[in-house]
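Q: what sequence does this backbone want?
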């Protein structure tokens, strides 16, 4: 099984469209003002946004892994993306920086390397 896509709701469709393009996602489908789908720079999953007047931004966090969190953070700051704080090393062995999209969806820019799937505390699969 592979994750195909995640769709996020957006009340300000144009702001969300611009935001995800600033993140470096490639626009592959556009239904003007209503729906857009993006390919991520690597991997096979896609992300889409769908217009709604009342988006239901929840408690989920969407993680975008990059090779160099500090470099990508600096690039995104320069493009006008606002972060909650500068990148930092977390106790779970990831380096990350958190931010939100225009609809209030929580996002995390991170790098974990092998610790993403194989942290020292990983349980052995029987």
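A:
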């Amino acid at each position: 099984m592979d994750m195909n896509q995640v769709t996020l709701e957006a009340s300000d469709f144009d702001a969300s469209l611009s935001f995800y393009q600033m993140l470096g996602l490639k626009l592959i489908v556009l239904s003007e003002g209503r729906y857009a789908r993006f390919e991520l720079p690597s991997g096979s999953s896609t992300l889409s946004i769908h217009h709604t007047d009342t988006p239901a931004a929840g408690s989920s966090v969407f993680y975008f892994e990059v090779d160099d969190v500090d470099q990508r953070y600096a690039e995104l700051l320069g493009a006008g993306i606002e972060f909650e704080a500068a990148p930092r090393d977390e106790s779970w062995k990831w380096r990350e920086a958190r931010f939100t999209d225009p609809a209030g969806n929580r996002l995390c820019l991170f790098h974990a390397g092998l610790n993403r799937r194989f942290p020292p505390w990983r349980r052995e699969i029987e």
